[in-house]
Specification:
little secondary structure, 0% strand, single chain, 69 residues
């Protein structure tokens, strides 16, 4: 994540509640070789969210970078 959370004690803005109607965002890069090759994404609804809560997820653009070991 990009370390710009509203509450610095939380891992991401999606864990922050009480911000009214303002949309929050989190973004970052997967750069660890063991984390690359994303084949799926799983999202869980938090227990304390309102029933009509909304979310938007985007992935991309993907960048391939040649590395030499």
């Amino acid at each position: 994540m990009n370390k710009t959370c509203i509450n610095p004690n939380l891992s991401c803005n999606c864990d922050f509640t009480g911000n009214g109607d303002k949309w929050l965002s989190d973004e970052g890069y997967y750069e660890t070789p063991d984390s690359l090759g994303i084949t799926g994404m799983v999202f869980l609804q938090q227990r304390d969210l309102e029933e009509d809560a909304q979310g938007r997820i985007t992935l991309g653009p993907l960048e391939c970078v040649e590395t030499s070991k």
